[in-house]
Amino acid sequence: MGKKQHQKDKLYLTCTEWSTIYGGKSANDRRKRLYKRLPYNCCSISLQPFKNPYCTKEGIIFDLELV
Fold first, then answer.
1. Is the Cβ–Cβ distance between 28 and 17 less than 8 Å?
2. What is residue 27's DSSP assignment?
3. Alpha-carbon distance 51 to 8, whole Å?
4. pLDDT digits (tens, 9 = 90+) for 2-45
5. What is the pLDDT of residue 3?
6. Which end of the chain is more exposed for a tag (fewer CB within 10 A), N or C?
7. CB-based contacts of 63: which residues, under 8 Å, 6+ apart?
8. How many CA atoms lie within 13 A of 55 on its CB side?
9. Total H helices, total E strands in the chain
10. Cβ contacts of residue 24 below 8 Å, gap of 6+?
């Protein structure tokens, strides 16, 4: 019979260890996928490219035709 045949100390990481302990998916990944930043050339009201852009003092950019 060989010695240490039931030893579980591996010198490498398994896929399960890597994904659960050292990175992999997290709860924040789902939240990041749900929120997507609006492109700079799009209206914040219609989410379409501008036809007549307008910027407020607060820095909100929208299409003037939609107001």
1. no
2. H
3. 64
4. 566 666 777 887 888 877 777 766 666 666 667 778 888 888 78
5. 65
6. N
7. 43, 45, 46, 48, 50, 51, 52, 53, 54
8. 6
9. 2, 2
10. 18
